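Progress narrative, Year 2. Work on Sugar ABC transporter permease from Cohnella fermenti advanced from sequence curation to structure prediction during this period.
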Amino acid sequence: MGNKRNPGLRGGGWAPYLFIVPAVALIVLLGVIPILISFVISLQSYRLGVPLDQIHYVGLDNYRDILSNRLFTDSIGWTFLFTAITVIFNLVLGLGLAMLLNAKAMEKRLKVFRSLFILPLMLAPVVTATIWEILFAPVYGIVNYVVELLGFASVSWTGESVPAKAAISAVDIWGATPFCMLIFLAAFQTVPGDVYEAAMIDGASRTRSFFRITLPLIRNFIALVVTIRVMDALRVFDSVMVLTNGGPGTATETMGTAIYKTAFRYGNIGAGSAGAFIFFALILVVTLVFMTLLRKQTGTEGREAA
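Result:
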């Protein structure tokens, strides 16, 4: 009796599939079905407040409408520019902070400073944006107070195009840099110490060691951070809605806010759903490009090692 095997559990029959049914059902219910419904809506003339019997199939008209909507098309350029600016700053600042915390002089203080640096990760994006909205206030904001102390005129951070874009970028950089720092700090721990010792014996400076040893050995971590941050930055929404609401005018509208306003402020659910699928396609393409580059890089490293 005790040695008798149950073919359902040990033989690899139905049991493995049964165990994953709840997870698959949850994914289908909360992920796949809403996406399919949204795609169907993107092909319908669907507006808020319109009776259901007036909703009808329009094919790709919603996609043509959203692509001819200047609010959406202008937001594409700013969204990609915002992504490029914030990701570059995230990489530079994240690497710098990780190097600082990885220094031998910081070993005893690592836990304290690491806890301080990751505080922005503990806050919800809406809370972060609200705090910065107060800091950027034109009259009583701390940022303008510091600017005036330095002898410069106060800035309307949310009332002018360039300052508003700078403010939104600064908020995102402040909130996302700790994540990059943690990944790079973990990456530095994977670099063998004897490699640096050999480089020092050969007369290599710290700068040369960083560019010739550290960066090549952690480039997979860099690719990972870039991929995650690009996807995250493209989806920026909370800080824009809280700080500027897309203004002044439409200067800081992102694809996320443009889709939201098209669907819920202007009531065109069909066009908003079409914009969401275009947005999804852009993010998918960017992600596939980065994943392909990462795969090729890993394959090259494997061949070199062989």
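The mean pLDDT is 85. The chain has 13 helices and no strands.
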